[in-house]
Amino acid sequence: MSDPFDQNSPDAREVAVAIQYDKEKDRAPKIAASGKGALAERILEIAFLSGVKVRKDEDLAELLSALEIGKEIPIEAFTAIAEILSYVYRTNSANPTMEKRP
């Protein structure tokens, strides 16, 4: 039986990356979690259950998944991350209640 959390298994197609950013402490957003396959699904499940906003961007997820946990995002990803953070901040300001997965 294969390990459902094996990052190299053929079933590890879906990629999820979580970022965190504390404008008081961090110079740039950092990778908080990253995984493929079942681990990606678990990251998404935790995000939805916690009310964390999720955006699907396969190219950005692939780029960020190559980074180590705790590393700052590269300058090449700043524009995309800035758009995501802007959306999250606007959404949270307009609707402070948490979103649940549909």
Q: How many helices in DSSP terms?
A: 3
Number of strands: 2
Q: What do we call the CATH topology?
A: name from scop
Write down the overall geometry.
globular
> What is the share of helical residues?
25-40%
Q: What structural class is derived from the secondary structure elements?
A: alpha+beta
Mean pLDDT: 80
Uncertain residue ranges = 98-102
Which assembly state applies to the chains in this document?
single chain
Give the total of domains: 1
Main beta sheet, described? 2 strands, antiparallel
What distance lies between the first and last C-alpha atoms, to the nearest angstrom? 32 Å
Computed Rg: 14 Å
Q: What topology, given as strand order, has the largest sheet? A: 1-2
Percent in strands: 5-15%
Q: CATH homologous superfamily - what is it? A: secretion proteins EscU
Shape-level CATH architecture: 3-Layer(aba) Sandwich
Assign the CATH class: Alpha Beta
Task: Please trace the helix and strand order, writing H or E for each element.
Answer: EEHHH
Key terms for this structure?
102 residues, alpha+beta, name from scop, two-stranded antiparallel sheet
Describe the structure.
The chain is of the alpha+beta class and 102 residues long. It has one domain: name from scop, CATH 3.40.1690.10. 37% of the residues lie in helices and 13% in strands. The chain contains three helices and two strands, in the order ββααα. A two-stranded antiparallel ribbon has the order 1-2. The chain is globular and about 30 Å long. The chain starts with 14 loop residues before the first strand and ends in an 8-residue tail after the last helix. The C terminus is likely disordered.
